[in-house]
Design goal:
Length: 340
């Protein structure tokens, strides 16, 4: 990723500056990273259709059933876990594309909280959810095997039985949220301020990747609808106003994609500016996904928001995640503070 395939062979002169240029630079994910993404996409297409997402709004735990175990068998949930603990010992560059696919499918699971945030800190196969980074609520604590929480800049693990949970109504019915109360005596510390800051950045970046997948799926839904829906004897996709809405959403997503990839590279290589890169990615991905949601709703009309239509499942997930792990305003303020 971001490597010159050949040595430096030529020079470019601009004004009084001379800069060496490589003959060929490949800005791309590796074949193995793309293969893992494709495998996750195929799995979720088979095992997590919209019916599974819809069922998570009313089932017992708001989750997908067997899909979580299948992701575990593929190694997705242990990408960032250390090899010594039975994980794959890989980096965010290896995880960011599978997370995007989880967004594309609107997977109703705490995949960011478990695979991106907790996996480097907590060993073992148990499902972990989190309540860190200033978040007031935990996601899916009722069905988790372990909780990762933050207090005063330090990270702790807690057994669910040691935590008092108060359910909170969520915009996205598949996201079961709860406010937690717990005693320090029941907690085990697993990280200090540095680990807490790194965990927050992984959560924000993982959420940005999920938002990209959500945005792309809504765009695909809307293109298909605009191709089939006809007015005045022609598909509505032939109307220039519809084309502009969809083009604006596509451009926003395409502009956000490299920021997410760059942030993943920065986290994976311990770039000192990684936190700012994460904030750029989260702000842009959140804005792009929200724009895609607006465009999708405008092109569908009222049916797009009806509970009987699948689009609303993706839109509500976008609205929930755009505000999670810091909204766009918060992340832009962090970037501004870093450069002033």
């Amino acid at each position: 990723f971001f490597q010159a395939e050949d040595g430096i062979r030529d020079h470019c002169v601009t004004g009084v500056q001379t800069c060496a240029l490589p003959i060929s630079v490949r800005f791309a994910f590796t074949d193995d990273q793309v293969a893992l993404r494709d495998a996750v996409r195929d799995l979720l297409a088979r095992e997590c259709p919209p019916a599974v997402v819809r069922a998570a709004w009313s089932n017992a735990d708001g989750r997908s059933g067997a899909v979580w175990d299948r992701l575990g068998e593929m190694g997705v949930l242990a990408v960032l876990a250390p090899e010594a603990a039975g994980g794959l010992g890989m980096t965010m560059l290896d995880l960011v594309l599978p997370l995007e696919e989880c967004g594309r499918a609107a997977l109703p699971e705490p995949v960011v909280e478990h695979a991106a945030v907790a996996a480097p800190l907590v060993t073992g196969p148990r499902t972990v959810t989190t309540c860190i980074g200033g978040a007031p609520f935990a996601l899916d604590p009722g069905s988790a095997d372990l909780l990762l929480v933050e207090r005063d800049g330090h990270l702790f693990t807690l057994e669910p039985a040691a935590v008092s949970q108060a359910a909170v109504e969520a915009m996205d019915g598949s996201r079961r949220l709860a406010a937690l109360e717990w005693s320090d005596a029941d907690a085990t510390e697993v990280g200090g301020p540095a680990e807490a800051a790194a965990a927050f950045d992984r959560g924000a970046l993982g959420t940005a990747a999920v938002l990209l997948g959500l945005g792309h799926r809504m765009l695909d839904m809307t293109v298909a609808y605009a191709t089939e829906r006809r007015q005045f004897g022609v598909p509505i996709g032939s109307f220039q106003a519809v084309k502009h809405h969809l083009a604006d959403a596509r451009i926003a997503l395409e502009f956000a994609q490299p920021l997410v990839a760059r942030a993943a590279y920065s986290l994976s290589t311990a770039d000192p500016d990684a936190s700012e890169h994460v904030s750029m990615a989260k702000a842009q991905a959140g804005d792009a996904a929200e724009l895609a949601a607006r465009a999708a709703l405008q092109c569908h009309g009222a049916i797009g928001y009806s509970s009987e239509y699948d689009l609303h499942l993706w839109m509500k997930r976008v609205w929930a995640l755009a505000a999670s792990w810091g909204d766009a305003r918060w992340h832009r303020a962090r970037v501004a503070a870093a450069i002033l």
